[in-house]
């Protein structure tokens, strides 16, 4: 492995330490090297706190002058919550910058590199690391390119694609190990959504139980067109400004007042046939700079999300079980597609093994 590869892998390792801690900003790693020695390390965490480059420059001190810099993302070039990182690198007198990818943020997008080059600092894009750097900031990049959150449909299913039996649904489909991985995924998302049916059946809370710090609370969303959410439910009782009930204008105003008094946000997103418009809900989340949304719901909501074309990817956990029958609920119910030619297609499929005998499938919806 070349020195460039060694140093960039260390920068990527640093960036990964900020995963789940930076929204709405990206996770970034920075490494300063002088005379073959690492003299500064940094990674970004909370929004508004110093960026990775500044932290690494501070650690390096005077040794930053003439150093080589390895970055996982193009340095910012505009004033935001913090001053521009490109300007800090120029002021520190670094000699050259190696970077894994250009920043997709339209406010940056090439201008950080341009500022460095204008100051006489050599810039080299190590594009063999672009895919890895992109994966670290999937939601951020998606948001910058599309203007809306990355939406992932997550479900635990049997081998025949069932998520619930017609009678007794106590217990779990997947193992404790698989469920622990779900908490790791939740930690990486800004918001999570379920339907009123799941809430009434499970009295769920949808909290982030990873035990890891977050830059802001996980926004918990219940799709409830007629406001049937019980005020005494665990979701409502645990609310601390982090619960949103997505409803319609047909909902009872008195119920709305009761839920709001209990500390829950209630907003109408009117759709067709008296249903909540998930597209309008996603647009609202975008306006509040929520970069990612996990859908963790039942059969009806899962299909509604797919039907409204808000889903970007799926993450299905498979257990070595079969329920069979026509009454067990499929992962996506609703009216469905009427022909195989109309089936929703997926690409970039990856299989993640969960020992000893479970696996998860991660795949992206083919758009357009």
Helicity range of the residues? 25-40%
Backbone shape = elongated
Number of helices: 12
Characterize the main sheet.
9 strands, mixed
User: What is the mean pLDDT?
Assistant: 93
Percent strand equals: 15-25%
Low-confidence stretches: none
Rounded to an integer, what's the Rg over CA atoms?
23 Å
Question: Helix and strand string, N-terminal first?
Answer: HEEHEHEHEHHEEHEHEHEHEHEHEEEE
What is the rounded distance between the termini? 40 Å
Structural class estimated from helices and strands: alpha/beta
Strand order of the largest sheet: 11-10-9-8-12-6-13-16-15
Number of strands: 16
What key attributes describe this structure?
16 strands; 368 residues; 12 helices; alpha/beta
Protein model, in words:
- With 368 residues, the protein is of the alpha/beta class.
- The protein contains 12 helices and 16 strands.
- The protein has helices spanning 3-16, 52-60, 85-92, 111-118, 130-136, 138-146, 176-187, 196-202, 234-237, 253-261, 278-287, 299-307; strands spanning 29-34, 37-43, 68-71, 96-99, 122-125, 150-158, 162-164, 191-195, 219-223, 243-247, 265-268, 292-295, 313-319, 329-330, 346-354, 358-365.
- The chain has a 9-stranded mixed sheet. Strands 2-1-3-4-5 form a 5-stranded mixed sheet, with helices on both faces.
- β15 and β16 (358-365) form a beta hairpin.
- α3 (85-92) runs parallel beside α4 (111-118).
- The protein starts with a helix and ends with a strand.
- 41% of the residues are buried.
């Amino acid at each position: 492995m070349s020195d460039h590869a060694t140093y960039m892998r260390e920068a990527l390792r640093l960036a990964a330490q900020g995963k789940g801690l930076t929204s709405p900003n990206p996770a970034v790693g920075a490494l300063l090297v002088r005379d073959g020695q690492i003299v500064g390390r940094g990674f970004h965490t909370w929004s508004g706190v110093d960026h990775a480059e500044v932290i690494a420059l501070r650690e390096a001190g005077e040794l930053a002058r003439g150093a080589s810099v390895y970055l996982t993302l193009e340095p910012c070039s505009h004033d935001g919550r913090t001053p521009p990182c490109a300007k800090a690198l120029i002021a520190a007198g670094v000699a050259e910058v190696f970077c894994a990818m250009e920043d997709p943020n339209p406010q940056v997008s090439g201008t950080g590199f341009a500022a460095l080059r204008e100051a006489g600092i050599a810039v080299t894009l190590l594009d063999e690391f672009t895919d890895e750097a992109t994966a670290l900031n999937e939601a951020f990049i998606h948001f910058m390119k599309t203007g809306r959150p990355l939406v992932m449909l997550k479900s635990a299913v049997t081998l025949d694609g069932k998520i619930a039996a017609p009678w007794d649904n106590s217990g779990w489909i997947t193992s404790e190990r698989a469920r622990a991985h779900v908490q790791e995924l939740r930690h990486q998302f800004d918001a999570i959504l379920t339907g009123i049916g799941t809430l009434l059946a499970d009295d769920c809370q949808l909290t982030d139980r990873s035990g890891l710090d977050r830059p802001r609370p996980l926004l918990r969303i219940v799709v409830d067109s007629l406001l049937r959410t019980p005020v005494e439910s665990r979701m409502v009782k645990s609310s601390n400004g982090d619960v949103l009930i997505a409803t319609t204008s047909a909902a009872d105003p008195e119920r709305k007042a009761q839920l709001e008094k209990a500390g829950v946000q209630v907003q109408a997103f009117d759709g067709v046939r008296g249903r909540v418009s998930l597209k309008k809900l996603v647009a609202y989340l975008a306006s509040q700079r929520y970069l990612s949304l996990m859908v963790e719901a039942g059969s009806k909501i899962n299909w509604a999300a797919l039907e409204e074309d808000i889903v970007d990817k799926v993450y299905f956990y498979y257990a070595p079980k079969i329920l069979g029958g026509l009454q067990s609920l499929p992962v996506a119910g609703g009216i469905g597609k009427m022909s195989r030619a109309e089936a929703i297609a997926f690409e970039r499929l990856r299989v993640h093994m969960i020992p000893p005998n479970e696996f998860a499938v991660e795949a992206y919806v083919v758009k357009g």
